[in-house]
Amino acid sequence: MQREARAKGESIFRLVRIWNRELPVFLIALIASVAILLLTGVVIWSTFRSGLPGVTSAFSVENYLAFLSNPFTAKGGVNTLIVGIGTAAISLFFAVPMAWLIQRTNIPWKNFSLTLLFIQVLLPGFLKTMGWIMLISPKIGIINLWIRNIIPFETGPLNPYNITTITILQGMTLTPVTFFLIAGAFMAVDPSFEEAAQVVGASLFQRLRKVTLPLLMPAIGAAIMYVFVIGVSMFEIAQLLGTPARTWVFSTLMYDHLNPEFGLPRYGAAAVYGVVLLLPTLVALYYYQKMLRASYRYTTVTGKGYKPKIIDLGPWKWPGLIFIGVYLLLDIFIPFLAIAWTSVMPHIQVPSVAALASINLTGYFSAMRKLLDGGVLMNTVLLMAFVAAGVLIISMAISWIVLRTRLPGRYLLDAVAMLPHALPRISLAFAVLFLGLTFNRIIPFLHGSLTALIVVYIVSFVSFGTRAINGSLIQIHPDLEDAVQICGAPKSVGLRKVVMPLLAPTLFYVLIWTALLSYREVTMALFLQSPRNMVMATSIWQFWMAGDTSAAAALGVIMVAFMAVILSVLLYVNPQVKLRGL
Amino acid sequence: MIVRGNRMLSVDHLRKTYRIDSGPVPAVSGVSFCIEKGRVYTLLGPSGCGKSTILRCVAGLEKPDEGEIRVGDRVVFSSLSGMSLPAHERNVGMVFQSYAIWPHMNVFDNIAFPLVYGKKKHSKKEIEDLVEGALKLVHMEGLAKRSAALLSGGQQQRVALARALVYQPDVLLLDEPLSNLDARLRDTVRKEIRGLVKALNLTILFVTHDQIEALSLSDRIAVMQNGLIVQEGSPRDIYLLPHNGFVGNFVGCANQIKGRLVQKSEDGQIGLVDTVVGQVQGMCPEGLFIGENVIFSIRPEIGSLYAHKPDKKINLIEVDVELLTFTGAFTECLLRSGDTCLEMKVVGPDNLEENQKAYLYLPPESCLVLPTEA
After folding, report:
1. Do B94 and A497 touch (CB under 8 A)?
2. CB half-sphere exposure, B125, CA atoms < 13 A
3. Residue of B66, B84, B102 to mutate when probing chain A, most A C-beta within 10 A
4. What does the alpha-carbon distance between residue A438 and residue A55 come to, in Å, rounded to a whole number?
5. What digits encode the pLDDT tens for the residues B219-240?
6. What letter does residue A173 receive in the DSSP assignment?
7. What is the ipTM of this complex?
8. Range of the domain at B56
9. Residues B235 and B263 in one domain
10. In this structure, is residue B247 part of a structural domain?
11. Chain B closest-CA separation from residue A466 CA (Å)
């Protein structure tokens, strides 16, 4: 008994000693964990409150009853499921052949394709959707106008405002994510499996179907789960294409409850959609983890770093290249060309010599005025800087604690950091909104502020940061730090002269990437939107909703141009970055 | 007052238990030893025996639970007074198993690091001279500007050694420094280290699981098992007079036959052991009792093999020759008597072939009767 008590006293004493030395690091990790757990808790807690936040109300299941009796629930649920499954299917349809073509065959312009896929991850989905609306909107869509010049339809014939278009655009938007999730597995398959099949006389197609793909099934399965999870809670594309046609999914229903056309926002009822989305998310993520583990069983990870065999496609490389080209055209070039064209037009019109005469920069003038007058530019820059710095510092602290200390419960910390990954972003944004309203009297600066945006962005991007830094820190042998101390220099010198320089490329990548993630994010910004925290992405949205297409397009062009500059710097400094996946 | 002589390192009653999530794991359970100036002291044992933990405790990279560690005349750790110098104030040198060469620096910057960032300040000229001297010691002249990422394993090893020597630490710690080198390079480097030790009068604590490295490099060896030193002595003592079967086995004695001590000679030197291969005689240490279970230990190189029954009365075992491998200096043979296999290294005879009967003679003065492991 006494001995036990003494041992306990000693271990507390030890803890206190560690705390003294590395206090700031532990404090950062602690605050971040509390914030994450708090937001998760609020999402669930708020569903059991009726009435407005901040007003004392009793515990009730009223919101769940309302959810069940709402006529939109069943329809929305089915739509959400269709969109989720469809999104995964479409992204797989493009990503699997592309991963094989780029990683395993001698197709030309691989580096170019890879670079574009890498950049696409950051291109805002809502801009692309606006581009497609400009092209195939029933009344004024450029392609529809073209077609009607030849065949006199009344309206249309193409129409983007339906569930099919939502699914296709979401699927194409997530294709690069799927690509980078499975590309590593394509490289890791031991070529001897395929060679063995070749030796017994299997053709290329038979080898693919009977050997390569079955070996990759767990990795592909994991990617399906991952993309499904994002697909069911995606907001911006469904909002732009579904709401005008009154085609709802859960994420847009949630937004509608918070920003109703008539009456007061119904916060508790909105939160229910987030919680209901959490369920399939957790199930899918469970299988994701399971399949991820299974995928390691099949792949051979040797220290030798053998190169997988590159397959010579012969003349078939041209159809392969066309396949990739079609994807890049549909997902990037065509919609962004439409945006660029519209940005210099007073209204949407078919490109022609006559139309060239009406080119003007009115859209750009409106865009610039918005950026400079309303503090939008300042907000955007502050948001990017604070989120990037915050994510970097918190991720470093968490990674370091998890990998370089023996703190009890450090793996719990890792799990907490990954938690926001499982929560739909719309739920996280909702939680911050709800907190800001509830505690409006105590912390009046939170509701509708840029701070609210910064907090929720940091929370949702920390999982990306810790994953990236974990991956690099784990490769730096602890001996390299120990050697510094043996050589007579204190630990801090090791951090400065050894760890930081070796980690620098990763830190730079995390910094730039999170800055750009917060730059292009519109969903969370819309949920927390107020006149005080307008950023570039929400300004484009505002122009669009007000019907000023040329200003929206012009601001979109400015946004993408600036992003291209930063990405080129990143790719110039570290050309290998696009191969690391995400 | 105790005269400490010229002890450079002393470790007293060291204990260390790791607390991992699944519970406490004792690594070192009370170990004491000391090393005199200019001597090589080796901790020899299988992985997990606690030898590397001791090394890391001495370096200051782990904190022991109990005990005292002195480097030179300074106490660097004492659980009684609660004092613990951080690693960078202990003035020890260390060569890591992984070498821990910083890949983002060149050779010069790696070796100069302790001079630039260490406690003692040096002028630029001094640093250049010292690094050049260290490079010369390890035969790496002219490679100062090479990036460390481009070094071969052997070169990294040399740079690690140079970096550990350049600031003249009181004690040099070597953590299995040869285990990542290929066999031939290992022999070369081992001889070079031996040369350096004597030329520079270095005090070394050496950790290894390789008995040949231990025997050939050390002045004293401590064989470790389960966090304890089971035997300490000169390489000769450890090899010729192991205290028990574990030590015997670990320093290269492949043949151990279980048996029972049935009789001792009048002076108590020779013991008669009843085994499955018959009654055999061997040197018997004090403290063994008649009737006790023992191990009869035969080193591979002590036996003689005969095709025809020689004129010997004792310790003659009839065996089947299963395998003969001629390696030049001697012939390795696998012999069988009943269910017992013996691996021996013999010189001659030339008239033997596989799958024939032969006679193995074991001189009693070269065989050992050992207690079974506790």
Report:
1. no
2. 0
3. B102
4. 8
5. 999 999 999 999 999 999 888 8
6. H
7. 0.81
8. 4-240
9. no
10. no
11. 22
